[in-house]
């Protein structure tokens, strides 16, 4: 993988992190939703670099196209039109911060890095080079081959969610 | 290739039956528009469950195998849980159909949802693959968020579904993160391969395996509402319509337990000699699980004392019962785990019955507070007597199935050295539990006759109550065959 | 091992995954607006899918991880739909979507 | 035969439940017939019982739950025959004593019959699991009987009774399971456990300490049984339960239920944990003496007739415990005889209290405000006074009536153990106090100038006399010649003591 | 002869059963049944008595096992000795017919019969007339049972049944509160004595394994009870002491004598029957039966002192009594004191004779006083007077009995009292340190003569104090006078020793009694003579002279003060005011027992204990922790949800409820806090898991 490609990847990673920060801490929910959009974009790029091109496409279509738009619709419907910048009442920040810094972060962070270094020790280094090879047909084969059951099983979930969402949202 | 697929589909026939009846539900609803009013949805669901049971019997005859390329397993264990889920689906629909809380016109949606949830649950029970497990859990969770809020235009119901959603989504997200770490660590999603990896390098995973397992346990604990993840249960059960709450208190819990049993027993390498789990320092895990179950039990029982809403009280009591069931895991032999399965059967019957009575009273008196029960024993003897049977069984009075369940669990605990304190705590908890169950009995019978309103219990509900009371008593007296059945089903996964 | 190698390698991916997960959890806990909570959950799910993709590339070089990530995305979409339906319903009945106010049922 | 005796009340109960709601008299006579059956069977058992052997008789053994080899194993020997006879007789009498129950007649009698079959079950069970099931099944009917048909704050008394006894029996559950799992061929069978009694050598760790297993088992079982007896520290439920229970229920409670505790100790703790019994004998004797004195002192200060009789039961059961603790032939035989005699004399006392309560609707010897509750009613109700005199002097321990011979044997047994001699002397103070509070009551209620308020009292009608005649005959006959009952238990007690010493 | 004994005590028993059950319906309310029953047993007892009088020896016994408990014997023992049947612990009861029994039978049946006859007249017209006869026939049956029983167990059983009968009879007029108080006091005091007796009985069983008299006597001779100790002290002295306590309780000796004077509340025939002839003498009879034990247990000195003190104190009080029955009551206590002292000093035969003679003349005295009371309808001597002319026959028998009791020669009292005093003097001379005993004895003799003649003069002589009563007085019908005459007839010394009763002066000597008692003594293994011959002889002659002097002095003093009014009783009373006040209050024994021990001690203690039981044990230990948890609640604030409904006031319940309440506080309803809590829970669980395999 050439140097410039790595720099671009790092840039996008930084983009993801920045937008994620905005999503959690920005007072205005609208800005948060839009920054979520950029976060999903960054993640899509990371998928590309990790050789999951089909996944990147799906990510862009489903997340950025579907979920974020859905969220924006929800914001529009739930806060009065002329008061777009829904002032988010300032919740007590102390507890979550404390929890994150001393509770979760150290565990997850140490776990992830520990796992990463352990994996790199066991898996041959050449494997890590970036070799772009289209994965779409592999995904297709897997879906209709080994993973046929989840592919079919997910339909029941989607059907249920569809009916439920419609029923819940329909005004009486 | 297709011969193998046909074989796989044959082994999956109970689930397929459910899907088929989903389709039937849709077509019937769209063609015949007054199905909203009549009993068609009930009939369809009953047919689904009946046929599903037949399919399960037929399937359980074949030798236990792992099929669909290692994603799911078919053995007595899954057959046992399929029976439980189909039974509770039928009972849940029957109760919902008769209860006033769910208006007539949206029975069709309810039938659909309940069948989907049953499908999801059986997926959870039979899956031996992380992806399948995740899909199963998500199906059950997402659809239960909807079911929790099923009472239209009711603030409490929508608030219940909202809370359920936030807590549920968060817990399954954590579980997912745990799956990803586990995948990274072991390099595979299939239980068998994970187990081999864990078996291979036992000693040198001091930090990672505990972390991923704790995260996975968080998702599963949410499903069975065990200690750290039990906070949502009281609020959701109180808010949700009573039939939904009774369904929640029975079926998803059994599914969660099935997933826990299958997941932890397959993955953690169990050393028969020392009788402990070597993967993460045997005694460590045993004592942590023991402490967790003890806290669950005590929290459930103590919080239930001061309640005056019976639904909330039964919610806490269901948490307590989960605490008892968790205790069974510690013994790791057919006796202990068989005790859990027996306890599940007994628990389903008696808890469903208790909730059923609450829903009848809620329909009748409009409120589920304690004083709504005053003197009902005298005006509706069948309701009174069956409620006595259910509550006595929940409290663990002999001659009822609850006692046998508890006895088996405590027996298992007493058998393992060093856990006596847990047995003593469990026993004291059942005494405390008797106190708040007795408060309901006091209202029903002891407070004397309630003037007037000798409202008669409808046959519809009477049959159901007696139907649930009979197994509670029979299992209490003559439980030898059930023990054999339970032992057979647990042997396959140990 | 330069910073670039570190960032673009497994360590980088996992680092981003962890940070996203933590921020997701903080969002769920901290946000008063229920939609904000939903965003947090989406972040958390994304973190998991990043992990899966990273391990699928660096650890197993098999397609399983990607399939799992695919299913995560599908289920996340379904969940978002149901969540928003619930939030709209709550809004219609209570005129507010503040997660804190939903404490009608307590102790 | 035994199974018929145990389960015939259940058949009766089913019949009663099937009867129409508006025919109370039909229900009552059905109850009479149902209790008459076990009475007849009891008499047959008494006649056919072979006094010479200590082995179990009328044994019926059927495998109930094969996987855990739990058996429906029923049989009786010298210890259980007197108790079975007492239960059968008192239940028959109590049906007549509860003739004027008005509300929920069907519920009352079905609960009563369930209670009777549970009691008979406990006395005949030889499988620990069966024993425990019958022991706990007895709780529910008692809870409802006290709770629904009881007195003023019946609910509090019923709940307290329920929780107290359940807490005790729950300890018993753990011991049962412990015994089941430590014996090699896992068994609940009491006789196997008795032959094996492997527990004296084993140790177990409880909360971290290594304790001898048999002593821990004995203490746990003792607490469970002591709550039932009731022995001193665990007795606070008795006055509540007695005062609030209806007459017939408090007769059964005092007549039979109290004996289950001591019977349990003799049937389970003594044969299976012999070394622990020897270790705990002193402590039991001390607790027995304390119960004797404590019951007597409290009884002297009571103003309510029924509470006085309740505390007198605590005192009399103290004799039983002292007798058992002495581990001598005379002592244990005296204890079992005292269980039987106390059953009859206290049943009479409670029936009589019931008679006066039905008429005067209050039970104050001295009203709380100090004025006279009853006074000098001897002249108004002579027959009642006569029978009450017999009951008072029987429980007082007057020779010639049944109370004396058992107390004499208990003291004789206890006195022959050198280290118990001081306890016996202190315990003998109980005899004097016993006389004091009973005669004080007799004087305050029956003798002295007639209290005009009660000049209208009517004497006992034939039904009430019918309930008291058998008990009076028993009290007098056993007082003069106690051998019929002693002959029953002689050989069994001898065998029990050989296994102990 | 043994069959007769069985019939003797079962006849009155049958009479009791008949009387109690269908007494009311029979003509004359069935009093004839019990009278005939007693006559029957008297006639059956007569041949036995005569055989003893004539041949001086009778000894028959019959017994059967009443109670047998198989003893635990290791199976090995059974296998090694196939032949022997399993040993059993037997409790045999039966009839023992020896000389003392025969004599007692004679006396008791005779007295009971006469008293039954007397009470048919005295009790005429009373309500519950039939029950009265039921009780006294039960009482006679019990007394006869006691006399004939061959072991201490049935002895004790009859002993207690007698106690109950005395309770019933004293409280016969149950309308009077004083009567029922007296009956309870009587029963409780005797009950204290009985309990000690019971413990003595237990001791006997431990030492000898049986309570049969003959086996005990052989056991003692065989040195069976040498080393045995009870509670550290030697077994025999423990048993002896306890048996003595039994007698003290029953025969109203020094510490427990408060009940006898109050027992006068009962009808007079009851006093005659119970508190003269039979019950109280039962206690002395116990000492006689158990004499070897007392002797072996070195308890005799204590017995002697108790007897002497009681005799003296009771006599002192009798002097100041104004109620005729109270005087006789105290005189009974005093005479019983004599008998106990006699036994204490070893004058076994004298004590036994005094028992018999005292029973006869005291019964006569009581019956005469009964007639007097029946005539003047009052018991206060101050209202009586000059009844001599009105009731000549009663006066005659009363005079004879009074002469007997005062110890005037020619009368039976003199014979037995003189021997007791002789024995006491001999004992005193032998053991100088115990000289106090004879002194007290002689002083009591003086006082006895004084108060008896005071009684005679105040009732029969002098001027009629109350005209109305005097006019109404009339002689009693035959069924009341005949018994008194018969009894007074038997109070002559001719039956017992010789016409004058003085040794040596008599033309012929009657020795049936001495031979019978001597034979009994040898049988029981009791030495005939204590101390050396010489001192005993001088003591007897000295005692003879002294008792004569004292008797005459007493009579003289009485005549001077009460007949001739030369000495004014009131002057002496004023001069000895403090002593008089103490005597009137009966040494404040009543106050001591009733107020101090019973009221302040026991009842307060009971109420305290009952409240303790209700408040402390029930509330604190079991209902418990309420106050502590209430404090916590107050501390946590007014949160009313904790006010758990009153039902669970039980302490443990409160604690769990408080625990539950705290737990529920976490259930705030805000879902985000749930998430935080669960995360905290998980991190803690994770850290425990990570603590690494220990």
Total DSSP E strands of chain D: 4
Largest sheet of chain D: 2 strands, antiparallel
Q: Mean pLDDT of chain A, as a whole number?
A: 80
Decide which structural class fits the backbone of chain A.
mainly alpha
Report on the architecture of this protein.
The complex is a heteropentamer of chains A (172), B (494), C (107), D (501) and E (694). Chain A has 6 helices and no strands. With 172 residues, chain A is mainly α. Chain A folds into 3 domains: 1-90, Four Helix Bundle (Hemerythrin (Met), subunit A); 91-134; 135-172. The longest helix of chain A has 29 residues, at 94-122. The mean pLDDT of chain B is 85. The two termini of chain B are 31 Å apart. Chain B has 2 domains: 1-272; 281-494, no CATH class. Chain B has helices at 2-11, 13-31, 40-61, 76-98, 107-126, 130-148, 155-186, 191-200, 208-224, 232-239, 242-267, 282-305, 310-329, 334-365, 376-379, 381-395, 401-415, 420-446, 459-477, 480-491; strands at residues 65-67, 72-74, 270-271, 276-277. Chain B is mostly helical. Chain C has 107 residues and is mainly α. Chain C has a single domain, classed as Orthogonal Bundle (Helix Hairpins). Chain C has helices at residues 3-8, 10-30, 34-60, 64-94. The longest helix of chain C is centred in the C-terminal third of the chain and has 31 residues, at 64-94. Chain C is elongated and about 55 Å long. Chain D has 501 residues and is mostly helical. Chain D has a domain at 294-501. Chain D is 72% helix and 5% strand. Chain D contains 19 helices and 4 strands. Chain D has helices at residues 2-18, 24-48, 80-97, 105-124, 128-137, 139-149, 154-182, 190-196, 213-228, 237-244, 247-272, 274-300, 305-326, 329-360, 382-396, 402-415, 421-446, 462-480, 483-500; strands at 57-65, 70-76, 203-206, 209-212. In chain D, strand 3 (203-206) and strand 4 (209-212) form a beta hairpin. Chain D is globular and about 70 Å long. The two termini of chain D are 34 Å apart. At the B-E interface, helix 7, helix 9, helix 10, helix 12 and helix 18 of B face helix 28 and helix 29 of E.
């Amino acid at each position: 993988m050439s140097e410039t490609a790595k720099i671009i990847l790092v840039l996008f990673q930084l983009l993801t992190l920045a937008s994620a920060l905005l999503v959690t801490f920005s007072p205005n929910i609208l800005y948060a939703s839009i920054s979520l959009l950029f976060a999903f974009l960054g993640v899509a790029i990371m998928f590309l670099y990790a050789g999951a091109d089909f996944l990147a496409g799906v990510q862009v279509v489903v997340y950025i196209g579907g979920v974020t738009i859905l969220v924006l619709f929800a914001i529009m419907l739930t806060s009065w039109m002329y008061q777009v910048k829904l002032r988010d009442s300032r919740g007590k920040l102390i507890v979550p911060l404390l929890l994150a810094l001393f509770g979760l972060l150290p565990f997850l962070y140490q776990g992830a890095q520990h796992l990463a270094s352990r994996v790199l020790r066991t898996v041959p280094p050449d494997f890590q080079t970036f070799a772009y090879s289209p994965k779409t047909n592999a995904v297709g084969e897997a879906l209709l081959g080994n993973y046929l059951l989840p592919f079919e099983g997910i339909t029941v979930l989607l059907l249920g969610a569809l009916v439920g969402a419609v029923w819940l949202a329909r005004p009486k | 290739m297709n011969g193998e697929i046909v074989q796989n589909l044959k082994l999956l026939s109970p689930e397929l039956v459910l899907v088929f009846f989903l389709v039937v539900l849709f077509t019937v609803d769209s063609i015949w528009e007054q199905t909203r009013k009549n009993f068609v949805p009930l009939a369809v669901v009953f047919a689904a469950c009946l046929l599903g049971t037949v399919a399960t019997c037929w399937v359980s005859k074949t030798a236990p195998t792992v099929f669909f390329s290692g994603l799911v397993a078919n053995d007595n264990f899954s057959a046992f849980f399929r029976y439980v889920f189909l039974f509770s689906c039928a009972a849940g629909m029957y109760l919902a159909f008769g209860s006033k809380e769910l208006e007539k016109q949206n029975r069709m949606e309810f039938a659909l949802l309940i069948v989907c949830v049953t499908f999801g649950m059986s997926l959870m029970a039979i899956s031996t693959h992380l992806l399948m497990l995740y899909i199963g859990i998500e199906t059950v969770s997402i659809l239960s968020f909807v079911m929790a809020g099923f009472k239209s235009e009711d603030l409490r119901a929508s608030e219940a579904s909202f809370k359920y959603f936030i807590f549920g989504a968060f817990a399954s997200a954590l579980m997912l993160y745990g799956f990803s770490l586990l995948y990274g660590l072991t390099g595979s999603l299939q239980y068998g391969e994970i187990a081999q990896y864990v078996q291979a390098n036992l000693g040198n995973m001091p930090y990672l395996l505990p972390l991923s397992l704790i995260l996975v346990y968080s998702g599963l604990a949410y499903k069975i509402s065990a200690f750290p993840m039990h906070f949502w249960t009281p609020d959701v059960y109180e808010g949700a319509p009573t039939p939904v709450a009774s369904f929640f208190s029975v079926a998803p819990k059994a599914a969660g337990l099935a997933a826990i049993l299958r997941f932890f027993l397959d993955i953690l390498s169990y050393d028969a000699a020392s009788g402990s789990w070597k993967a993460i320092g045997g005694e460590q895990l045993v004592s942590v699980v023991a402490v967790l179950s003890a806290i669950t039990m005590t929290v459930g029982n103590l919080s239930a004392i001061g309640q005056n809403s019976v639904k909330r009280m039964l919610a806490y009591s269901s948490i307590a019962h989960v605490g008892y069931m968790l205790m069974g895991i510690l013994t790791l032999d057919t006796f202990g785990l068989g005790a859990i399965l027996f306890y599940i059967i007994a628990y389903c019957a008696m808890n469903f019955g208790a909730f059923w009575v609450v829903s009848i009273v809620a329909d009748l008196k409009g409120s589920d507070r304690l004083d709504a029960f005053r003197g009902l024993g005298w005006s509706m003897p069948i309701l009174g007597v069956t409620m006595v049977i259910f509550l006595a069984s929940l409290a663990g009075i002999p001659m009822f199935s609850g006692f046998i369940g508890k006895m088996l669990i405590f027996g298992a605990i007493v058998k393992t050295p060093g856990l006596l304190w847990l047995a003593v705590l469990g026993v004291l908890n059942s005494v405390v539990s008797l106190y708040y169950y007795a408060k309901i009995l006091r209202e029903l019978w002891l407070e004397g006759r309630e003037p007037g309103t000798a409202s008669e219990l409808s046959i519809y509900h009477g049959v159901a109550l007696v139907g649930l009371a009979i197994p509670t008593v029979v299992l209490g007296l003559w439980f030898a065959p059930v023990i054999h059945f339970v032992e057979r089903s647990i042997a396959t996964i140990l | 091992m330069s910073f670039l190698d570190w960032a673009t390698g497994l360590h980088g991916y996992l680092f981003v995954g962890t940070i996203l997960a933590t921020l997701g959890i903080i969002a769920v806990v901290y946000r008063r607006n229920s939609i904000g909570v939903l965003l947090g959950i989406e972040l958390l799910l994304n973190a998991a899918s990043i992990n899966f993709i990273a391990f699928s590339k660096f650890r197993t070089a098999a397609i399983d991880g990607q399939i799992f990530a695919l299913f995560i995305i599908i289920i996340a979409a379904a969940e978002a739909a149901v969540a928003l339906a619930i939030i709209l319903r709550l809004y219609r009945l209570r005129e507010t979507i503040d997660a804190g106010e939903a404490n009608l049922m307590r102790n | 035969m035994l199974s018929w005796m145990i389960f015939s009340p259940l058949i009766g109960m089913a019949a009663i439940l099937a009867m129409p709601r508006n025919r109370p008299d039909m229900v009552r006579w059905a109850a009479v017939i149902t209790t008459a059956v076990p009475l007849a069977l009891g008499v047959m058992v008494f006649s056919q019982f072979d006094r010479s052997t200590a082995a179990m008789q009328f044994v019926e053994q059927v495998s109930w739950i094969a996987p855990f080899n739990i058996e429906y194993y029923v049989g009786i020997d010298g210890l259980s025959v007197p108790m079975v006879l007492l239960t059968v007789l008192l239940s028959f009498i109590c049906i007549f004593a509860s003739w004027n129950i008005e509300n929920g007649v069907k519920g009352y009698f079905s609960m009563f019959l369930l209670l009777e079959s549970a009691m008979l079950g406990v006395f005949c069970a030889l499988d620990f699991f069966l024993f425990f099931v019958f022991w706990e099944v007895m709780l529910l009917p008692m809870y409802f009987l006290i709770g629904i048909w009881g007195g003023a704050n019946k609910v509090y008394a019923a709940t307290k009774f329920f929780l107290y006894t359940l807490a005790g029996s729950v300890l018993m559950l753990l011991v049962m399971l412990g015994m089941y799992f430590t014996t090699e061929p896992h068994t609940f069978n009491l006789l196997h456990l008795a032959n094996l009694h492997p527990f004296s050598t084993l140790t177990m760790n409880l909360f971290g300490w290594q304790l001898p297993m048999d002593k821990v088992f004995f203490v746990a079982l003792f607490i469970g049984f002591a709550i039932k007896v009731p022995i001193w520290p665990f007795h606070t439920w008795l006055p509540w339960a007695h005062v609030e229970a209806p007459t017939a229920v408090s007769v059964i409670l005092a007549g039979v239920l109290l004996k289950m505790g001591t019977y349990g100790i003799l049937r389970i703790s003594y044969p299976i944990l012999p070394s622990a019994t020897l270790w705990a004998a002193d402590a039991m004797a001390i607790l027995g003496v304390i119960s004797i004195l404590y019951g007597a002192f409290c009884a002297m200060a009571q103003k309510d007739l029924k509470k006085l009789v309740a505390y007198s039961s605590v005192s009399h059961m103290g004799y039983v415990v002292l007798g058992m603790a002495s581990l001598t032939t005379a002592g244990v035989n005296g204890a079992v005889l005292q269980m039987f005699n106390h059953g009859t004399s206290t049943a009479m006392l409670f029936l009589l209290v019931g008679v006066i309560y039905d008429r005067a609707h209050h039970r104050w010897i001295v009203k709380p405000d100090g004025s006279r509750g009853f006074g000098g009613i001897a002249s108004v109700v002579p027959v009642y006074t006569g029978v009450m005199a017999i009951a008072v002097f029987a429980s007082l321990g007057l020779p010639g009536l049944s109370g004396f011979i058992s107390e004499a044997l208990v003291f004789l047994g206890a006195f022959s153990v050198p280290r118990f001699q001081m306890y016996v002397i202190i315990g003998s103070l109980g005899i004097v106090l016993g006389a004091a509070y009973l005669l004080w009551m007799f004087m305050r209620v029956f003798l002295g100038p007639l209290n005009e308020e009660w000049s209208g009292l009517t004497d006992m009608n034939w039904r009430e006399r019918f309930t008291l005649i058998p008990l009076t005959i028993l009290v007098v006959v056993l007082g003069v010649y106690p051998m019929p009952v002693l002959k029953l238990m002689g050989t069994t007690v001898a065998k029990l003591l050989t296994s102990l010493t | 002869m043994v069959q007769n004994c069985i019939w003797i005590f079962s006849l009155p028993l049958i009479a009791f059963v008949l009387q109690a059950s269908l007494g009311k319906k029979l003509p004359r309310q069935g009093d004839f049944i019990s009278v005939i029953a007693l006559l029957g047993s008297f006639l059956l007892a007569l041949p036995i008595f005569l055989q003893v009088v004539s041949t001086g020896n009778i000894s028959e016994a019959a017994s059967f096992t009443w109670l047998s408990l198989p003893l635990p014997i290791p199976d090995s023992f059974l296998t090694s000795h196939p032949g022997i049947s399993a040993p059993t612990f037997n409790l045999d009861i039966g009839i023992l017919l020896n000389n003392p029994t025969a004599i007692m039978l004679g006396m008791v049946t005779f007295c009971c019969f006469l008293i039954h006859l007397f009470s048919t007249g005295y009790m005429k017209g009373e309500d519950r007339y039939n029950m009265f006869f039921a009780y006294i026939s039960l009482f006679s049956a019990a007394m006869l049972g006691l006399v004939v029983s061959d072991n201490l167990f049935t002895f004790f059983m009859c002993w207690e049944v007698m106690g109950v009968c005395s309770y019933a009879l004293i409280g016969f007029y149950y309308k009077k509160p004083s009567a029922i108080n007296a009956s309870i006091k009587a029963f409780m005091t005797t009950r204290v004595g009985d309990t000690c007796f019971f413990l003595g009985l237990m001791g006997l069983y431990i030492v000898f394994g049986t309570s049969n008299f003959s086996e005990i006597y052989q056991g003692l001779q065989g040195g069976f009870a040498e080393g045995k100790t009870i509670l550290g002290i030697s077994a025999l002295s423990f048993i002896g002491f306890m048996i003595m306590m039994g007698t003290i309780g029953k025969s109203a000796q020094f510490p427990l004598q408060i009940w006898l004077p109050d027992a006068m509340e009962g009808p007079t025939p009851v006093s005659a029957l119970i508190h003269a002839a039979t019950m109280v003498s039962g206690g002395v009879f116990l000492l006689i039966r158990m004499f070897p034990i007392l002797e072996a247990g070195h308890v005799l000195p204590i017995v002697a002192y108790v007897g002497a003190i009681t005799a003296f104190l009771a006599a002192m009080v009798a002097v100041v009594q104004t109620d005729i029955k109270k005087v006789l009551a105290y005189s009974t206590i005093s005479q019983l004191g004599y008998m106990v002292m006699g036994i204490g000093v070893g004058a076994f035969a004298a004590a036994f004779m005094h028992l018999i003679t005292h029973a006869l003349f005291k019964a006569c005295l009581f019956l005469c006083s009964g007639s007097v009371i029946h005539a003047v309808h009052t018991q206060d001597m101050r209202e009586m007077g000059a009844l001599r002319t009105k009731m000549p026959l009663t006066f005659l028998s009363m005079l004879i009995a009074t002469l007997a009791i005062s110890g005037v020669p020619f009368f039976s009292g003199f014979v037995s009292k003189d021997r007791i005093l002789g024995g006491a003097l001999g004992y005193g001379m032998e053991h100088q340190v115990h000289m106090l005993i004879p002194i007290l004895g002689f002083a009591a003799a003086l006082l006895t003569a004084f108060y008896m003649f005071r009684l005679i003069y105040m009732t029969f002589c002098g001027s009629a104090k109350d005209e109305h009563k005097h006019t109404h007085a009339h002689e009693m019908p035959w069924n009341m006078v005949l018994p008194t005459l018969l009894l007074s007839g038997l109070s002559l010394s001719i039956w017992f020793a010789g016409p004058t009763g003085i040794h040596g002066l008599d033309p012929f000597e009657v020795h049936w009694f001495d031979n019978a008692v001597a034979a009994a003594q040898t049988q029981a293994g009791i030495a005939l003579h204590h101390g050396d011959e010489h001192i005993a002889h001088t003591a007897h002659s000295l005692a003879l002279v002294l008792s004569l002097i004292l008797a005459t002095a007493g009579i003289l003093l009485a005549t001077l003060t009460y007949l001739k009014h030369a000495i004014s009783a009131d002057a002496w009373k004023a001069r000895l005011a403090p002593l008089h006040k103490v005597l009137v209050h009966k040494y404040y024994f009543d106050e001591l027992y009733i107020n101090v021990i019973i009221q302040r001690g026991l009842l307060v203690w009971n109420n305290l204990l009952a409240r303790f039981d209700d408040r402390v044990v029930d509330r604190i230990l079991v209902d418990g922790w309420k106050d502590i948890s209430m404090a916590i609640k107050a501390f946590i604030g007014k949160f009313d949800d904790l006010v758990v409904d009153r039902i669970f006031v039980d302490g443990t319940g409160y604690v769990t409820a408080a625990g539950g309440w705290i737990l529920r506080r976490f259930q705030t309803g805000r879902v985000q806090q749930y998430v935080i809590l669960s995360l905290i829970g998980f991190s803690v669980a994770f850290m425990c898991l990570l603590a690494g395999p220990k």
